[in-house]
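@channel sequence for tomorrow's demo:
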Amino acid sequence: MSPDINYLYGAELEYLLGGYNNSVSNLNKSRNIICGVRETMNFAASYEITEINEAICAVADTAATAVAATGVGAAVAPCADFCQRRVETGVCFDRDSGGLDGTKRAG
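structure tokens (generated this afternoon):
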């Protein structure tokens, strides 16, 4: 046994989050939890960052105005708003983390 190796650490945190009997499942579950929290925070931030919020609202309003005569303008603005925020969240996640598969590096 080597004093340089922590034999007690065998993905305990991942086990606490996942509860499975194998490391791969625990790591996958942990990654999914972390990604979910990050996606939620990025989505919430799209409302708080003024530049992003104003741009999304402007596009959503423009889309609603463009179809106002058809009677669906009231439904278009919230849908356009949500879709744009979702795309922005995905772009932030991909940029910050290097993607879900981890093969890309942020840079």
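heads up for whoever presents: The two ends are 39 Å apart (CA to CA).
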